[in-house]
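Thread: quick sanity check before group meeting

JM: Hey all, I'm pulling together slides for Thursday and realized we never actually wrote out the predicted structure for the chain we discussed last week. Dropping the sequence here so it's in one place. If anyone has concerns about the input, flag it before I start.
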Amino acid sequence: MATKLDESEILSGLQDLPGWALEGGRIEKTFTFASYPECVAFAVKVALHAEKADHHPDSLEIMWGKVKVAYVTHSAGGVTRLDLEAAAQVDTLV
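JM (edit): ok, ran it. Output follows.
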């Protein structure tokens, strides 16, 4: 089982993840795209990666021109290394 990180560990891990922030007990980032179809295509990439990795976003919100992705490990009661690793992988999907 993944271990919950404390706030300083999370903030340290986020230093290597530009645009990601700790908000409301989870890490999140909003990605910007030129069109709604691009947003949907990115969200599908995130979903497929999550299935393969067996670690899913807490939230995947599609808006016009934006997609917000958020991670927290509910079974650990907070953000874990799995969430930081997933965030890094999502960044490569853009």
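AS: nice. The chain has one domain: 7-92. The longest helix spans residues 36-53.
JM: adding both to the slides.
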